[in-house]
Recover the amino acids of this structure.
């Protein structure tokens, strides 16, 4: 059962009752055994069935429904059955595209990803390179602390950062007031509110996301670095290459596929980031601080709900991410992940 | 930790030799950087714990101190006996444990079956299925939550912990199947064939040969499924919306946080109680994972 029908061929596993056993010359047995063989062909499908049902019902089907709802006027009257659902063509998309809030949310999402992704990648890579140079004990210590930040639940991390940047008693404002003026510090930071405007709020979210995101990059880069033969760096060093040249001429070209995957994953994670943004920007309280994820969520779950419009938004978000995912899948396939 | 922090201080006291040789200076510099990275990384976690032990007067003080001057258990007591929001921590812990444990167990079984299928059989749609999993894993939760909410409403699974754990099972499957597939593929086929030749039936082969060898892999994937379910926020927030008694810990922590006058001591104590189990678990398993994987490799 556990060996593939094709590869572990009939003759090699007589005990499993393979189709061409010694009774194969007998016509009735042949028929029975053939049916057993076809049953064996069903085995992989039966093994896949539970996962396929779950994934189909709760991942694929909702995605299809989103696409359907986004062309309907699905809202409170429809959900209660007071009014029938009607097709509205591109009405929802029209509504979304003409809403200034959408453009503000899109701008925030794009800018945020454009800042956070490079920052996380650079920080993670630098720490990865550092870990590679450290002694075994020190490397284990630093990577464990980093993984603790990574294992930190997004909710706790967000709540902690809101506290660190709290205007009344938060440590960030206090530190900034103590900072000398030429470094941008000063008394004007006292009681500074970080969550009243998009820029400071997303500065906090940026720090938070980089803090939680860099360990994964660092550990992945480290794993990649371990695969590079030491002779390559040795040869480059003999040729007089400094660390900067060494990274761009030796390390980077070899790790390029890993960087590509990490880049795509980071964009996917950060573009529509929800939990951190939801908590730091004040739980749907500040409309000018919405990113695409929060904006769509707000359309669906603040009264009165407009599921159609929210689905149109969610569809836009999903399509953007799927385009990036297509790149990710291609990169993984090229790396030989699927064989 | 103490040992690691001490290593950059391994510099000769008083530094009599002014000209350290290059390699040694570089090593000190590297270790110092490592310590700085570790301190910066740990600081928010440290500050959470420290705040949780501070009495209210120190939290409200406009000059924050890294350590509590008069450590107190009061914040933890308030959280545990529920005097802050009227419900004790234990209710939410029980809810979280229920959805986490049930979803980890069920998804491990389902993922193992699927992993055996894709690692041990060649059949049509095999790579299609794998690629499909890779793609659906990327579907944004904050988008799907809208359609899922409407579906769950229809089948009466809102405000239900069982409904929530069904979602956690499903959403952890793509990753766990992909990871387990590698672990199953790493078990040499010859072992199974040898057992089969010795007369073991397919189920015996599975229980006696494959399962023990894949066990470290199951531990790894369970950790991922555990962390996912324990930390998950969007679904819990949306699907448990109206029934406070069903809240899982992440929703509980933010519920706390949303209430008018912010009691940071209580919030940090609640965060510690919510975060601590997953960290301890992670640290234990991390060590065991390394040896487990190693043992698996040697046996293989």
């Amino acid at each position: 059962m556990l060996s593939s029908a094709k590869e572990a061929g009939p003759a090699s596993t007589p005990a499993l009752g393979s189709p061409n056993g010694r009774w194969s010359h007998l016509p009735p047995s042949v028929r029975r055994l053939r049916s057993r063989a076809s049953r064996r062909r069903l085995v992989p499908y039966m093994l896949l069935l539970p996962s396929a049902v779950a994934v189909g019902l709760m991942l694929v089907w909702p995605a299809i429904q989103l696409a359907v709802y986004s062309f309907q006027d699905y809202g409170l009257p429809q959900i209660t059955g007071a009014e029938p659902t009607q097709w509205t063509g591109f009405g929802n998309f029209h509504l979304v595209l003409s809403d200034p809030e959408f453009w503000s949310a899109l701008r925030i999402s794009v800018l945020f990803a454009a800042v956070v992704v490079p920052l996380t990648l650079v920080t993670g890579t630098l720490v990865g390179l550092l870990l590679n140079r450290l002694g075994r004990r020190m490397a284990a210590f630093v990577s464990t602390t980093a993984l603790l930040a990574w294992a930190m639940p997004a909710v706790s991390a967000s709540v902690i950062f809101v506290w660190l940047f709290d205007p009344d008693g938060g440590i960030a404002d206090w530190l900034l007031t103590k900072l000398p003026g030429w470094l941008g510090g000063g008394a004007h930071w006292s009681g500074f509110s970080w969550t009243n405007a998009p820029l400071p709020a997303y500065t906090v979210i940026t720090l938070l996301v980089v803090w939680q995101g860099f360990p994964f990059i660092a550990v992945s880069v480290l794993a990649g670095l371990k695969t590079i033969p030491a002779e390559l760096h040795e040869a480059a060093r003999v040729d007089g290459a400094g660390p900067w040249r060494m990274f761009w001429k030796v390390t980077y070209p070899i790790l390029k596929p890993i960087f590509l995957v990490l880049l795509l994953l980071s964009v996917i994670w950060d573009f529509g980031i929800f939990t951190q943004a939801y908590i730091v920007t004040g739980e749907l309280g500040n409309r000018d601080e919405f990113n695409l994820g929060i904006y769509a969520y707000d359309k669906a779950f603040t009264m009165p709900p407009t599921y159609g419009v929210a689905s149109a938004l969610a569809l836009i978000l999903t399509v953007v991410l799927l385009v990036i995912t297509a790149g990710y899948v291609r990169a993984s396939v090229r790396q030989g992940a699927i064989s | 930790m103490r040992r690691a922090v001490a290593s950059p201080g391994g510099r000769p006291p008083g530094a009599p030799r002014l000209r350290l040789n290059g390699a040694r200076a570089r090593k000190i510099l590297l270790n110092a950087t490592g310590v700085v990275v570790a301190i910066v990384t740990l600081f928010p976690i440290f500050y959470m714990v420290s705040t949780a032990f501070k009495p209210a007067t120190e939290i409200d003080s406009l000059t924050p101190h890294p350590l509590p001057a008069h450590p107190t258990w009061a914040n933890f007591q308030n959280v545990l006996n529920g005097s802050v929001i009227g419900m004790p921590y234990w209710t939410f812990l029980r809810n979280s444990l229920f959805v986490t444990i049930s979803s980890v167990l069920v998804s491990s079984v389902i993922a193992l079956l699927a992993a055996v299928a894709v690692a041990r059989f060649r059949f049509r749609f095999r790579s299609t299925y794998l690629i499909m999993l890779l793609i659906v894993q990327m579907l944004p939760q904050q988008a799907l939550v809208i359609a899922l909410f409407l579906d769950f409403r229809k089948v009466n699974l809102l405000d239900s912990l069982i409904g929530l754990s069904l979602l956690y099972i499903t959403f952890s499957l793509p990753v766990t199947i992909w990871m387990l597939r590698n672990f199953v593929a790493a078990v040499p086929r010859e072992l199974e064939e040898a057992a089969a030749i010795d007369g073991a039936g397919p189920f015996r082969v599975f229980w006696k040969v494959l399962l023990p060898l894949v066990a470290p892999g199951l531990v790894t994937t369970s950790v991922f499924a555990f962390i996912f379910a324990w930390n998950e926020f969007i679904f819990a927030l949306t699907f448990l919306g109206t029934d406070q008694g069903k809240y899982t810990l992440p929703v509980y922590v933010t519920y706390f946080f949303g209430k008018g006058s912010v009691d940071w001591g209580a919030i940090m104590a609640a965060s510690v109680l919510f975060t601590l189990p997953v960290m301890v678990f992670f640290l234990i398993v991390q060590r065991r994972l390394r040896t487990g994987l190693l043992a698996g490799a040697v046996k293989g």
Observations:
- Chain B has two domains: 2-78, 89-299.
